[in-house]
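During data preparation, we tokenized the protein backbone, and the record follows.
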Amino acid sequence: MLFLFNIFKSIVQILHSNDSPTQIGWGFVLGSFLGLAPFFCLHKLLILLMIVLLNVNMGAAFFSVLIFTIIGLLTDPLADKIGFILLAKTPALTGLWTSLYNTPLIPFTKFNNTIVLGSLMLNIIFIFPLFIFTRKFVVYYRKNLAQKVEKWKIMKLFKLSGVFNVYSNYQA
């Protein structure tokens, strides 16, 4: 129960933060890259560096990691098929994979793993749809739902708890 309360708190903090919908959207997208890739690899380190250095909502990024880790477990068979097609069934790409593998640092991306490559491709395909959906959801929430959510009993309990101080710091 406490876990669900913390997730709800995180969502509220993200939606009520002073960050723009664009910052929240890009944070969510970058977090999806961390969540979908199954292993530690170089591109995860680069994405983490982008989250820290770019002006994105870190809460949205790390919430997205949680969500896309779960989604990743469900999409691994699809990612495996996509990666297998790209690595083994597309002769036109064989030269590219060979030269990339012989390049310093690139093998640390683990692109030669079918699930890693397939997950990366899924992420690339869904960058803009995910960004647009997240951004529109934040705008819609702030315009149409934020005041209604404020009236929920759980929000009143939330305000009564010691967590209200943290929550009040994130209100728009």
